[in-house]
Description:
46% of the residues lie in helices and 21% in strands. It is of the alpha+beta class. Among the domains are: 34-137, CATH 2.40.50.140; 415-458; 463-621, no CATH class. The strands form four sheets. Strands 15, 16, 17, 18, 19, 20 and 21 form a seven-stranded antiparallel β-sheet that branches. Helix 9 runs antiparallel to helix 10 (288-306). The relative contact order is 0.07.
Amino acid sequence: xxxxxxxxxxLLLLVLYIGLLVCxxxxxxxxxxxxxxxxxxxxxxxxxVVGFPxxxxxxxxxxxxxxxxNGQKVSGYLYARFPSAAPAWHETLLLCGKLKKxxxxxxxxxxxxxxxxxxxxxxTEMTVQSVQTLAPPAWPLRLIYTLRQDILATFERHxxxxxxxxxxxxxxxxxxxxxxxxxxxxxxxxxxxLLVASGGNVGFVTLVVFACCSLFGLSRKKTALAALAxxxxxxVLAGADAPLTRAYxxxxxxxxxxxxxxxxxxxxxxxxxxxxILLVHPAxxxxxxxxMSFLATLAIVVCLxxxxxxxxxxxxxxxxxxxxxxxxxxxxxxxPVFTNVFYKVSFAxxxxxxxxxxxxxxxxxxxxxxxxxxxxxxxxxLQWVTGAALLAFKWLVEFFxxxxxANVPAAAWSPGWVAAYYAGVFGLFHLRxxxxxxxxGPVLLAGMxxxxxxxxxxxxxxxxxxxxxxNKNAILYRTAxxxxxxxxxxxxxEKLARAVLKSGARRVDWVLLSEDTPKQRQQVQALQQxxxxxxxxxxxxxxxxxxxxxxxxVSVKVLWGHLLNRQNKVWTNAGFSGGRxxxxxxxTDGNITFITAANGRxxxxxxxxxxxxxxxxxxxxxPL
Length: 624
C-alpha cells in the first residue's frame, strides 16, 4: 500500500469528522424521539422489528423502530421485552405497555446499560403487555429469518448449550445465553471475536463461492455476481450490523476490482464504509464493537499490504504467516481498547488465534454443511464429526485461557498514553518504508514524548470520584503524586476494583474504612482479588479520632463522623458507643485539604458540601 493513501481527501475527511464527534457530539434523543412519551400511563405504539430477537431466561428482547404512539407520528428506537413468543424480524406490530428509561448506574469503570443503548440511539424501554401483528415481513426477509431461526434451533437440538452457542456464534454471530465461564475463557484466550459474525466471515463466504464457481468453470462476470449475491444474503442472515455491512461494502469493492482487473481499493472501501456508517449513525463512534472492528480491519489491511509474504515460501507456510501477521497487527492495534474495556490483557491470544482462526473457518463451513445434512435427514453422517470439532474448539479455548499470561490484570490507559502508543504502532507498521518514515518519524517521536507529558502535567490533576449505587457509597482519590486512596468501601468489591483500574492504577495505597463492619471488610477482601491493596485502616481498632497518619506526601487525620441533618447542615457525631460508629477522614495533599464524610456520601472542601449523585459517578478535579 502506497503512502499516498494517507493524503486522500476521503481519509482526511473521516479523521476530521471522527475528531469532531469525539469532542462535541453526545448521543441524545431527537425532538420526535419516542423517549419524550415516557409517562406512568400505558401507551400503544406501532413499530417495526429491526433486529433479531435475543432469547433471555424469561423474555425475548429486540429493537423496534417506532412509527406511531397513540396515533401520533414519532421516530426513534425502542428496546422491547416480549414475555411470550419472539416477534419475527421486520414484522410490523402494535405494542401496548409502559415506557420507561433504560436502567442506568454510571459507576466509574463499570458497565452502564443506558449508555450502551445510547450508542445505538435507543433511549426507551418497554415490557410488552399485549401485542398484535399489523403486517408480516416481506417474503424474502421472512424466508431469511426463518432460515436463521431454523439453523440455530438445529444446533440446539443436536448439541449441548456450550457447543450450540459456539456453532451459532461462529456461523451467525448468535451465541445466545452462553455460559459465563466459557465467555470469560474466550476473552482470556483472545478468541472472543470469533463468536461474532465479522468481516472475516463475509470474506470466507465470498472465497468459498469463488472456489465453487471455478470448479464449474463459470465466467468472471457470473462468478463475481454470484459471490456478491451469496455474500449479501449471508450479511443479512447474520444480522447486517455495522461490521458486516462494512465488510460487505469492502467485498463489493474487492469483487468489482477483480471483475475489472484493477486494484480492489479495499482500503478506500473501508474508509468510505466507515464514513457512511458514522454519517447515518454518529453515536457508533462511541461503540466499543465498532471501534474494535474498524481498527482491526484497518490494521490487517495496512499490515498485510506493507509486509507481503514471499511467494517462494511453501503455500502452507504463507498461510500461517499471514494469520500470524493479521493476528499480531490486530492484537497490537486493539490493546488499548481491549484494556480500557476489560481491564486485562491476553498474551495467549497471539498463538491461540493462529490455531483457532483456521479452525473457526473450518467450523463455519462444517456447521453450515451439518445443517444442510439435517434438512436432508442425514444428520447422523456429520453429527459426530461436527460435535467432535466443536468440542475440540472449546477445549482449545479453555487450554489457552488457562495459560498463566492469558489473563493479566491491567489498568486503563490515559488518552495521552493511548495517543503515544498509536504513534509508535503507526511507525512500527511502516518500518519497511524508510523514506516515508524519515519524513513522519520526527512527528511520531514528538507525539510519543509530548502526549504523555501533556497528560501528566495538564490533564491528571488530583481528583476525587464520588461513587454511588443505590445509596451505597465509596470515595476514590487520586493524589497529586498518582497514589490511590479508597474511603468507605461499601460498594461491591469487584465494582470497586474496576473503578480503581479505570482510574489508571492497579494498586490502592490506602483503604480507609468509615465503619469497622463485616460488610466493608468483605468488600476489601473482594477488592484484593483484582488489585493490589496497601494499608487498610480500621477505625476504633487501628486508628482513633484525632490520630494522624502520613504516607507518600499525603496526611490523613481521623475525625469523628461528619453527617448531614434534614436542614442540610453538617453535624459531628462524637463519641464511641462500641457499635457501628462511623468516622470521617481529613486528607491533606500539598495545598489541598478536604474531608470525606457520611460513609463516603460527600466531601467537605473549603466549607462547601460536595454531595454525590445517585447511581452515578461525580468527578471533582482540584482546583475546583
